[in-house]
Amino acid sequence: MLFDKSPDLLVTDLCLYLAACRNDLPIFKILLKRYEDKNFIKNHALKIFEEAGSIID
To answer: What residues contact residue 25 under an 8 Å CB cut-off, 6+ apart?
Structure first.
């Protein structure tokens, strides 16, 4: 898996946004678990996924 090969991989909001743009919910959820800023997860993660989904539509 990705994090087995690179355990120190930095996950940013851009990573989350790109996963959301691809409508890749499983990858998005994995990235959320690794995201550094826990307040971001609580307050903004689903919003980013919804915004990216609206771009796809």
So the answer is: 49
The two most distant CA atoms of the chain are separated, in Å, by 34
- Can you read off the two tokens belonging to residue 33? 């678990």
CB 15 within 8 A of CB 30: no
C-alpha–C-alpha distance, residues 17 and 49, integer Å? 7
Amino acid at the residue 26 = P
Instruction: Using the Cα atoms of residue 12, residue 18, residue 20 and residue 25 in order, give the sign of their dihedral.
Output: negative
Does residue 57 surpass a pLDDT of 50?
no
What count of other Cβ atoms lies within 10 Å of the Cβ of residue 13?
A: 14
pTM for this entry: 0.40
Q: How far apart are CA 40 and CA 42, in angstroms?
A: 5
